[in-house]
Specification:
It is built from 14 helices and no strands. The chain has 411 residues and is mainly alpha-helical. It has one domain. α7 packs antiparallel against α8. The longest helix has 58 residues.
Amino acid sequence: MGNLSGLLRSRAAVLVIAQLTAAAGGLFVNLLSTQGLAPDARGEMALFIQAAYVVQSLAMLGRDRSYLVGGPLASNASIPRSFLSSNRAALVLLMLAGMALLTLSHTADGRWYRLAALSLFFACTGIFGYALRTAYILGSRGAGRIYGLSTVSLQAVIVTSAAVLFTLGVNDITAWIALYPASGLVNVFATIFMIKASSPTHISSLPLRRSLAREGWRLLPLNVMTVFLQKADRLLLPLLATAAELGRYAFVSSIMELVVWPVSQWLDTQLRRWRDVSGSLSRRSVSRLLLRVLLAATAFASATGVLALLYITLVLPSDYAPARLLILPLGLYGVLKVLSRVFVAVQVARMRSAAATAIELSGLLASVALFFVLTPTHGAIGTALSMVAGGAASLGVASLLSLNFRQKKAG
């Protein structure tokens, strides 16, 4: 059991470092695209990228989480093959839909069809990325080296390409969005290489694969709630306000999301250990974890907020000046979101998917309800305040469910 704990801890550290590398690359692209595009164009770009993340999450049918909780550990090199096989239908449908949209690119609305097609292709490459990540977390032989190299290579490709577009003064969002599926091909090639290098054995018995699929369906509502809670702001803002408001909002939120990403990656690596190691989810251990996460998230949110403020003030054109008002509420939302993610991970590890879904659903309902009240009259700042309310609702429900679980356990 000690070996399992140490193994997962080492993978958690590498995964967090990889996520920080990805975050640094994403931040660089965000800074350059914001300088190269007007707020309305930056808003359209954000809308299609977020739509791709939503489609990707829905397409995996919860298996991205069920494999982490119930997938077999240690030296099984066929994990990515099984993961992709379970998502084969989704990959085929996304590719066919993307190609169908490209055939309509010559019409009057061809630009929008091209952007939608690129979003679907990006969602496909994201599924390959999840296969590689899952293989690494679950201990697939050789996955560490491939995962590390693919992470660095992907960021190198997207950063270099963004720098070229910025240097050439390209202000066409089609070219900027194309960076994402193009760089995502690194994950596709890396995953295929790993599959080719592995033995053709199956990941597990058929009953276990079916069990993972069933658990995926149970976790699908949680995934839907999670992704919509994370993306609903950028999906609804252009509908309730303007694309320019979304452009300003997307710039600040992309920076403040750096508070959430590393902790989320680390939590995913802990699910199996928390489920298997007795005492790892005791009241005291969870309380200590929450305190550490709170302190780290607050410090990180403060640092990223200062970065965003300086960049808006000193570098960006005056069109982005109103975005300074978004820093404080979105930083607060990041801290609340990180804390609620801890509770969600704990509930998933306890195999209480309904409770985890309730945490995310409460935040989604609260924030979306306020979107329609605040965003039409207050624009991006209204959306930011709605997200804070949603984060507070999720955290409140999580605390109540955790207290109820303790009382039942004591009884």
